[in-house]
Amino acid sequence: MSHLPAPSDDTPPPPLHVAVIMDGNGRWAQARGLPRVAGHRRGAEAVRACVKGAARHGVTHLTLFAFSSENWRRPRDEVSALMGLLRLYLRNEVAELAREGVCVRMIGERTRIDADILDLINDAEQRTAGNSRLILTVALNYGGRAEIARAARRLATAAAAGHLDPDSIDEDRLGAELYAPDLPDPDLLIRTSGEQRISNFLLWQLAYAEMVFLDVAWPDFTEDHLAGALVDFHQRDRRYGALSG
Question: pLDDT tens for residues 161-188?
Fold first, then answer.
């Protein structure tokens, strides 16, 4: 049963963009005496619930932190298992996502990702490009600092070539060089497993996001947890540096 009230004229609109740090897969598995990959497998089911719930509750943009640039430091067998699950998800879920009006996108460096996975990502992006019910962005081999550094390099290169006046560089110009400049900034960040940090995720874009930290591990995340976070979001007073009205 959803925690959200039935829609009415007085019901506030949902946040436009929800970003999620899906944390706790390994600890969920270890607490049950299972290999860490079992937590990642169960976490894939939570992804399904989150995507369906976001679309059902009117969220238009959902960004999931799937694999950070730092995650390569994990044991080789765990990284291999994660990539295998990504392959499986892309093969099994894209057709349904396309039917449900979901547009799939990826942000992050595409280096180090196996060619067959990149082919699956490219296919998913092409097959769903015309959809607009929910923009599902997957952050893969992603780091927020690296994204900002990449944008700065691109601007520096343009300036050095004489194509850009350095004095014209402002927040909007730098933002235009990020991986997905057309995405609105997240209104709400959700992180599971009780950790209360953003772990190099969307550092530029989260400047004014509301944050909800949940004690539930990601494999146990359900649509009800999403609904509860949306209710929490609507109780916040978002001032963007100004005074309350």
Answer: 999 999 999 999 999 999 999 999 999 9
Residue 162, number of CB atoms within 10 A of its CB = 7
Cβ neighbours around 73 below 10 Å, total? 8
CA distances from 170 to 92, 157, 178 (A): 42, 16, 13
Q: What is the DSSP letter of 187?
A: S
For the cut 70, the answer to whether the pLDDT of residue 2 exceeds it is no
List the one residue out of 19, 99, 5, 96 whose CA is nearest residue 57.
5
pLDDT tens digits, residue range 201-240?
A: 999 999 999 999 999 999 999 999 999 999 999 998 766 5
Residue 154's Cβ-count burial label (10 Å; 0-12, 13-18, 19+) is middle
Superfamily of domain 17-143+188-234: Decaprenyl diphosphate synthase-like (3.40.1180.10)
Is 165 marked as binding a ligand?
no
**Amino acid at site 67:** F
Closest CA to 188 of 139, 244, 143, 232: 232
CB atoms inside a 10 Å sphere around CB 136: 24
Residue given tokens 């959200």 in the structure block: 4
Nearest residue to 49 via CA among 186, 185, 179, 226: 226
| Residues 185, 168 contacting (CB under 8 angstroms) | no
For 59-101, how does the pLDDT look when each residue is reduced to its tens digit (9 = 90+)? 999 999 999 999 999 999 999 999 999 999 999 999 999 999 9
Enzyme catalytic residues: 23, 71
**pTM (whole model) above 0.85:** yes
41 residue type, one letter: R
Is 28 within any annotated ligand binding site? yes
Flag whether 25 is marked binding. Answer: yes
